[in-house]
Records
---
Amino acid sequence: MSDGPVVRFGETEFGRSKRRTEGLLRLALAAMTAAMIVPLLALILYLVIHAWPALNIEFLLEVPKKGMRAGGIWPALVGTIYLVLGALAVSAPLGILAAIYMNEYARDNWFHRSINMAVINLAGVPSIVHALFGLGAFVYAAQFGYSIIAAALTLAIMTLPVIITSTREALNSVPQAFREACWNVGATRWQTTRAVVLPNSISGILTGVILEVSRTAGETAPIMFTGAVFYKAVQRGDLFPYGLHDQCMALSMHLYTLSTQVPGVPEALPFATAVVLLGTVLSVNALSIVARLWLRGRKRW
Amino acid sequence: MTVGRPQRAIRPLWAVLGERALEVLIRLSGVSAIVFVLAIFFFVFREAAPVLFSDRFSPLQFMTSAEWYPTSATNVRYGILALIVGTACVSGLAILIAVPFSLGAAIYIAEFSGPRVRETLKIVIELLAAVPSVVWGFIGLTVTSRILVDLTGAPVGVNVLNGGLILALMCVPIITSIAEDALKAVPDVYREAAIAQGANRWQTVHRVLLPAAKNGLLAAVLLGVGRAVGETMAVLMSTGHAVHIPGGLFDSVRTLTANIAAELGEAPAHSDHYRVLFLTGVLLFVITFVINLTADLVVRGVRRER
């Protein structure tokens, strides 16, 4: 106290160094965040620039020609749509019902916890193991052969956790008081779910379904050995080229074969395929995000 | 006057029965996740079992030999050591690169950024996580490998480093979003207590939040490891195709997952080769199962403490 002037309420050396470290670290952390995002944007830009010469509406509608060295991606595009719709038809109802069970019916006991655990594990199983499962179970054991149905079922099981998780989140966001009010007028559990919980969460559930579409469209490994095929002759612009028991082409598979199996492909073709696939997946995903933000904005409770 | 039982609205029989049926359906769907996990193990193991118990195959050689000659006419060997090492190298490198960046990004998003920036970054990360693995593989094959060759003069661009980089880019969004959730899960009273004692943001993060969220962060890293080990298309396309134990960062390798994807199409159905590939699948299933279980237990440990 006695030696030197005492500065009250001013910044001490300790305080200054504290602030400096914080500023530096803040900058470092922001730089790390940027380091994660900038390369991606650069890569996407690179893809688009290289794809540009081939990207037009003809590319989407035309079939591959000259042993895939020219032409477009129509059969692959349609094949992906078939697979996504097939997978969705199975996994959406199953996943939504499973989520209803987990959120509305199950009590918190070991059984419920093991279901939870199973969902987490299902999400963590490598995609190639799903492919092996699809091959062993659907192609051989169920004797669907290499077909759209086997591939779609494999995809459905693979993406089930996505839909269960997002549906549970949507159901969980309905306030408990809503349910209690409904029980108090004598409604059963299902009546409550149908009349109160589902109407209040249906938009969130749909968001999850959209998210699942984007996940399904991008998968390659699970369909490689169950139903997707290297090449299939299809008429230009034909909307119904495949039957349920046919094999089909798919965008993701097409990108893989085009870039690794076919020699002498003009560079723009695989780049354009990659951009179409990436664009499809990201725009569907963005749609689900926009829907979610919009819903959050107009929530009434 | 007798007091009757209270009047009760009678629902039509079909409604009651319909509801019962629907509830049975809901319960069945509820257990479907368990059924599917068991079914995956069952069907993959079923295809693998005949070779596992046959005398043409030795489990010891399978795990410890680096000789993988599945299609050799005279000297068939099924040793996956080189593939295990390949998986370990590529995913280990990816995690080494990804963890600092994703934890840094998670801390920035959770604690340093304003609400608008946070929302934007979270959306970007969600989109990043949605990029299909085959697109990552394509980028690894055509873009980053060329950049690597230009920068380092390596003879081939598709090597351990390239695979590690691509996998790191893929893991970062997952680890970041889970780690950010873990940081957000720390109760606000912890932050308030730290601020009340005069701690600034960084001191709060360093001394209070990181210790409090350490299990959640560990789980995030573990899930990233699980993703890296199980990733197929990206490593298939970006690591080259040499089945040998890599001597350095610029060697080509093959991972367990890529090996299945590369060879399953050529292995005749129900041959030994085919069954050994399924056995590799069983191994992968077990590895990721253990990783996920550990991550879940780690997170649960946190919940119990609180």
---
Amino acid sequence: MTSHPLTVCLGKTGDILTLLPLLLTEATDGHRPSLMVSKRYADVLEGVSYVHPVVFDGEAHEVERAVKLADTMSTNVRPCQVCGPMGEIRKWVLDRNKDVKDGMMLGDSFQKSIWQLCGRWQDFSKGYPLVFDRRSPEREQSLVEKYSTPKKKLILVSTGRQPKQATDDGHFQYKDLLMLLLERFKRLYQVVDLDEVVAERFYDLLGLYERATMLIASDNAPLHLAHAVSKMPVCALISDRTADGKPSPWNGSAWRGTHVFHCRYSDFALRAAEMIGVIEAQGFPGDPFFARKTPGPKWVHVWSQYEVNKDTAKRHELAKQTWQARYHNDKSWVSCKIDRGAFGRDSEAFGMEGGRYPFLKDVLRAAALRARPDDMIVVTRADTCFTDVPLRHGWATRTMRSEDGDTYHPSLDLLVFPRATLERVNELPDLVMGPDPNWPQVVREWAGGEEIEGAVWRPLN
Amino acid sequence: MHRIEHNQKLAKAWFDKRGGHPYAPVVSKQLPTVIVNRRALFPYGYNPSIIQFGGRTLMAYRYHPNNKPASELAIAELDDQFRVVKNTPITLPPASNEDPRLFEWDGKLCISYTVSTVPNPAPTCVVRWGYLKESKTWEVEGQWLPKYGQNDSSAQEKNWIFYESHGQLAMRYANWPKIVTLTVVNDVVKEKDIADGIRWKWGQIKGGTKEVRSANGRLVRFFHSRLDNEPIPFRWRYYIGAQDMESGAISRKPILRGSELDDLSQTEASSCMHRKSNVVFPAGAIATKTGWMLSVGINDCLCGLVNIEEKDLNL
């Protein structure tokens, strides 16, 4: 019996990968945090040196038996498994945790809830890296040689099946559509279906990941593994259903800074063409990965796709043209679109009237994940047009532009502040980022700065 | 709950906790301002027009006796510290007499003002002018009704600016889409001059003051504008700008903007039935050593004298 913490998360692979960045922060010289996992998923821990694996000789759903066993091994057991038989999860995980009231977990995604159960909910949004420090270059190279050709750029596609396991597409029903859409890229790209790739160890895929131009993945382990490769853009197809098919955005993975496209399963049929546009835009100004090829601080442009609807679509298209011009003229811009459904909670999910919009803090936390310490955050509305006025720490109100001339409008349409400001994001109230004036007024007061005259405009109609 | 209601509640609580607010600063915090002692005026007097005449500083203003909808006019005399030394009503025929503007013509003190049919549900108004005579009260001789536009009680004519120009009485009638300037003899319009209008981002340019040359020689006039694009419940906001009358340049951004707040206490504000937020209304200016003293009405309940320097003009 030891007093060292013993974390219990029997599986699956994605949940274990969610925990590894947290455990890495707890590893110190001479101490490796212990993690109890089901033997079915234990081999993923062979790829890391900083975790002491405690292999449970049972299946991932045997939560009660595992926790009871853990209690015989440590006086400091930390159960954090969120998937499994609900009765056992409630009794052996949630009710044992002092931070969980009435079985209600925090967070808009199961990943954040896992961190909450470890007492680290606030830290999830810090974007700690996923590190595999015991990789096999030989095995990775073997996969690269087998599955990729050097002359073409590589797009990896995963829709759910894990290597050496039976096919499980989960609730993503559009694989055929997806593969059909990708046909158009086959002249320039090699499209590799990861569902067909057999790797000795799951993390051997990292060699292919580092070679890839992009990963398109449904909400399964290969998507979670992508967090280990910060330079690979990801089109993330995210679950919004429970295992038995009930609507639940919490069952989807959290937004990551590498997600250039983040789409819920139920939205995919409508947004598939948009994903093609995102793939085509890679390598152009505004693309986060393109901009990072040059050193120096960037302008991280945050805007919410939730604001785009039939009334604003035309203005949004016009605004995008001005953004592209700005991105093109000044190559230091990083676009940070907040896709509809990016987060597991929004105003509609909270039963509010007045349309579906994200929560401000979720948006700003997402911006923090995409930005680097020296960057500036630029928040606009989806239909805000840029002028060529230089930006600085501050804010700008809307100018309504028409053939008759310009008219001032009090709406705060531009907020610019240093990335470091986001360290204080928890000071903000839980406002909805909709088309009302309240949240920008709060952000202006919170972030400070001076008025930037003439920086933005919007057409009158 | 509606998401806007949710946001309003949280934003208000957040600002309350921090001790701030999301509103425009009070007018008296935007530029150095003397709030004329309202207790020395008739209750909640506003929309003042200041002038220096015969070695005296006079300020005409409007007020609502007993909080009635119809307003009356008065003139306060101010000392060199802008303290009220005398406060006298102007005697006029019964009506809602509004927005007085003092000016000098032919060496005499004159006044223009609006005569409205308030409290009629669809009020109309006309502009009159006349010579001021001081006795026990102020009397207005003439009370002429220049025949121009719809100055015949069929519409709302207001914000006419009278001034002396090349020995004649001139009047700026409109600023947009054309600048219309008239020459007036009593109630007859003699000449009309039309020039291209000036557009301003903060709404249609209206009213304001006659042109006033500062001690440094800069000749400007002040004006107001209004935009009806503020969120509920405020809906509108007034702005003040200036025009350099020699170069034609216009303020790049407002010199002053109306505020949701003012210098009244909450109790005072709630007892003033005609108070309206976001209003700042210029009607007179005098030259000072460093620029201008602009008289402004604040939220239809206060008289302010704003000290404006050249740098504040945003020209």
